[in-house]
Amino acid sequence: MTFRIMDEGKGMDIEMKKILCGLRYLIIIMISLLCLAPFGILLILALNTPRRNFYEGNMFVPDFYFQNFPDGWKQSQIGHAMLNSGLITAGAILLIVILGAMAGYAVARCKNKFNQTVYLIFLCCMMVPGIINTVPLYGLMIRLHAVNTLWGMTCVCATLAIPQAVFVFTGFIRALPMELEEAAVIDGCSQMQVFWKIILPLLKPSVSAVVILNGFGIWNNYAQAAFFLQDRAKHNVPQALSIYFQQFAGARWNIMAATAVIAIVPVVIVFLLFQKNLMRGLTDGALKG
Amino acid sequence: MKSRKIGLHQFMAVPAFALYAVFFIYPLLKGIGLCFTDWDGIKAAHFVGLRNFIDFFHDQRALSDIRTTVLFTLGSAPLLNIVGLVYALLMNSEFRGKSIARMCIYMPAIISPLIMGYIWYFLLQPGRGFLYHFFDGLGHPEWFGNWMGNYKSALLVIVLVNVWQYAGMTMVIYLAGLQGISRDLYEAAKIDGARWVDGFLHVTLPLLGPSIRINVITNIIGSLSVFDIVMSLTGGGPGYQTETLSIYIMRMCYGSKTGYSVAVAIILFLIVLIPVAASSWLMRKKEED
Predict the structure, then answer these.
(1) Contact A222 B231 (CB under 8 A)
(2) For B168-195, what is the mean pLDDT?
(3) Which of B17, B58, B141, B152 has a CA positioned 20 to 30 A from the CA of residue A281?
(4) B82 to chain A nearest CA, in Å?
(5) Contact call for B28 and A238, based on CB within 8 A
(6) Which one of A13, A40, A65 terminates a domain?
(7) pLDDT per residue over A4-40, tens digit each?
(8) Are residues A106 and B3 in contact, defined by beta-carbon separation less than 8 angstroms?
């Protein structure tokens, strides 16, 4: 008798578990759809003819009208802006990764006073929003002739991301086993060589994390670009889009959407390439610092 | 060991620090001097004492900006953390399509908030927006309101869009934290007869401490300096009602009131300092216990 009751209880449990599992799937699918919906709407808008009313007929089947893309590309000069954004992002990421990893190595492996102080300053300054230093920075940028230059913007973006990168790299390097480095030193490597030949290649996952956490922010940077990239030839993507969109005052959504899609494509591709390593980069010690 | 020998690697933090000192620390210190002047960005600056600060607290628009910024933060920082944690809990187990679901949820965070703002504006615009037609289709057009035209609802929309966009980022940090928690702890709790809620309260939450700290602090700082999403959704409107402090700083700087906008930046810095100092004080107190 008692056995049977227990069995029934177990059966109920499994049933409940199945329902809960299904429910969870449903919730996850709904959340995913909610996150993707605006992209779908953007794409549908971009593929409709300018004359079509979005809500006519079946709004989920677009016209597959591709003329919006070349039109938007030509009128908005988005290609030029994407080149600017790309150069700024690539340069800034290179600076962030190399300088950040070097600093992270020094902080994690050489516990001298200077390194510890630098680390502490970075930790504290991580709390200071970029906008606060932007206005006084403007004066310095004018004197350096760095306003409306790509290298100036690259340095500004790299600077804003450096503290977090140092934090991530320090945590990651601390979690690496010392034995590797000791073995390399015994084999005759100098500490500098150890960094370039052993540590840097091992940093791949946390580089992915740093690229994902900062790269898109730099590509999409608007707050600093509004100050330092006012010249039309030096506009980055958000600057170009906002100026372009303002001309229409919300009247020509199709061409705006097509331009936005063009601007999004490279970002999505880079994201898909790096996202596999993102979780590993974050879990392997980045947060333990 | 080897590290006692002075080598170049000891100074590997220098380049990162040099970049940071030039583009961040120096302007920040300079800004503290500039905020007491009437500098307009071009001509020589004159010392005006505390006038900028007195002006600030007599400007209705500035005071309303402080209110908007703080209200936005009070709404978005807790919501981001709750939603991010719920997402992470949903995602923190093996199921098919896990990485795709994660990707979907993270996707909004890689797109320019500017583009996001325009998409949501398209969805929400009065009379012609997607949601209006949706409710109209349901036979209840009166459910739709002019949400962007009214201070309270416009602020709510900005908060929700911000949460929608960045919940994925918060989720990733929480996921990294969750994966650091050993399964054995849950098994042990289960054997002791703990329910899921007990496990969550007494195992998950305490061990998530570092992730919670990082998320709360970055979300508070990010929310207090919010810029892009407000620019594209409402442009600070209606009137100046949803303008935030960082937009005010930019507009004042453009309006040749550079010294004044530096003073506003310093005020924003002090506002940011309060929650950051409070959180690190709480942290230290907890460590002492």
Answers:
(1) yes
(2) 82
(3) B17
(4) 15
(5) no
(6) A65
(7) 444 445 566 778 888 888 888 888 889 888 888 888 8
(8) no
For residue A1, pLDDT beyond 60: no
Supply the CATH number for residue B234's domain.
Answer: 1.10.3720.10
Question: In degrees to the nearest 10, what's the CA dihedral of B271, B276, B277, B283?
Answer: 160
Kindly report the nearest CA distance between residue A175 and chain B, in angstroms.
13
Phi-psi region of A178 (alpha: psi -120 to 50; beta: other; left: phi over 0): alpha
* CB contact residues (below 8 A), chain B span 196-255, against chain A: 210-211, 214, 217, 221-222, 224-225, 227-228, 231-232, 246, 249-250, 253
Q: How far apart are CA A62 and CA A117, in angstroms?
A: 58
B127 and chain A in contact, CB less than 8 A: no
B126: chain A residues, CB-CB within 8 Å? none
DSSP designation for B22: I
Closest chain B CA to residue A257: B119
A143 and A170 in a common domain: yes
Q: Is residue A71 part of a domain?
A: no
pLDDT at A288 over 60: no
Residue of B nearest to A103 (CA): B13
pLDDT of the residue at A53: 65
Instruction: Give yes or no for B182 touching A (CB within 8 A).
Output: no
Per the structure, the complete domain to which residue B92 belongs is given by 74-244
pTM over 0.90: no
Residue pairs spanning A and B at CB distance below 8 A: 275
CB contact under 8 A, B111 and A129: no
Rg (CA), chain A: 25
- For residue A252, the chain B residue with the least C-alpha distance is B122
Which residues, other chains included, contact A220 with Cβ-Cβ below 8 Å and sequence gap of 6+?
A: A237, A238, A267, B111, B112, B113, B114, B228
To 5 degrees, how large is the angle CA B236–CA B125–CA A244?
65
Q: Could you tell me if A130 and A260 lie in one domain?
A: yes
Tell me the average pLDDT across A142-165. 88
ipTM given for this complex: 0.78
The per-residue pLDDT for range A61-97, each reduced to its tens digit, is 777 777 778 887 887 788 888 899 999 999 999 999 9
Chain A residue numbers touching B211 (CB-CB < 8 A): 287
